[in-house]
Amino acid sequence: MAGRNTFISKAEYAARIGVHRSQISRYVKAGMPTHNGLVEPDEANRWRQANLDPTKPKSKVQAPSEPEPSASAKRQTAPPKRTLTAEQPPEASTDLIAARARDAHYSAELRRRKLLEFDREHISRAEVEAAWDAANGMYRQGLEGIAGRTASIIAGLTGGEAARIEEIIRDEHRAVLSAVADLFDKAAVLAEAGGALPQGGEDGAPTEEASHG
Q1: For the chain, is the Cβ count within 10 Å smaller at the N or the C terminus?
Q2: Which are the contacts of 54, defined by CB distance < 8 A and separation ≥ 6?
């Protein structure tokens, strides 16, 4: 056994081997022998040679080695491999997402078309009249002033009276508007009746006599 004079402090041993004192404390916790807090250098050196990782001699202590699991244990603990079948190629998930997106799109489009079809089949008379009023207003605005502008031209070409020609043109406009109004009115009645003609109903087409007053 080493003599008392061979023992040195942890700080002295740390300085001797070129490490910090705290590293010696870690060695001691890992099992390096000491004697009443003192270190016997030769004994400590033998412990370090037997227990330190030779690739990292200043700090790392070799961890206790664990037995390598057997081949059967590896097979039991290994995660199951994902297998792909002919029905499930790698792009199967992508195709499934695309298919669902297409289904959602077509379903939404089908609902939209059904709503449009329902709206066309259930147009109220008030809606028809409102549409007619809007169309009639646009027609009147578009034709406003045509009679006055064309009457003088026609009078110059024919030698007739411009005032009389303008009156005739305005009468024609009023007759056409009246005939179109009748058609819209009958269309509204048909819509409310589900497409059935009212008793005594006619096609409502403006006649040559109606257009000429």
Answers
A1: N
A2: none
Q: What is the pLDDT of residue 170?
A: 81
pLDDT of residue 211: 46
Residue 64 has pLDDT above 50, yes or no: no
For the question of whether the overall pTM of this predicted structure is more than 0.85, the answer is no
In terms of Cβ atoms closer than 10 Å to its own Cβ (0-12, 13-18, 19+), residue 48 is: middle
What is the C-alpha to C-alpha distance for residues 32 and 5, in angstroms, rounded to an integer? 19
N-term to C-term CA, the chain: 142
Buried (b) or exposed (e) across 153-172, using 16+ Cβ within 10 A? eebeeeeeeeeebbebbeee
Is pLDDT above 80 for 147? no
Question: What phi and psi values does residue 33 have, to the nearest 5 degrees?
Answer: -70, 145
* Signed CA dihedral, 23, 28, 32, 36: sign only: positive
For the record, the structure tokens of 117 come out as 């079809």
Residue 129: pLDDT band with limits 50, 70, 90? confident
| Contact call for residues 125 and 192 (beta carbons, < 8 A) | yes
pLDDT tens for 41-60 read 999 999 999 998 666 555 44
Measured CA to CA, the distance from residue 120 to residue 139 in angstroms comes to 24
HEC string for 46-100: HHHHHHECCCCCCCCECCCCCCCCCHHHHHHHCCCCCCCCCCCCCCHHHHHHHHH
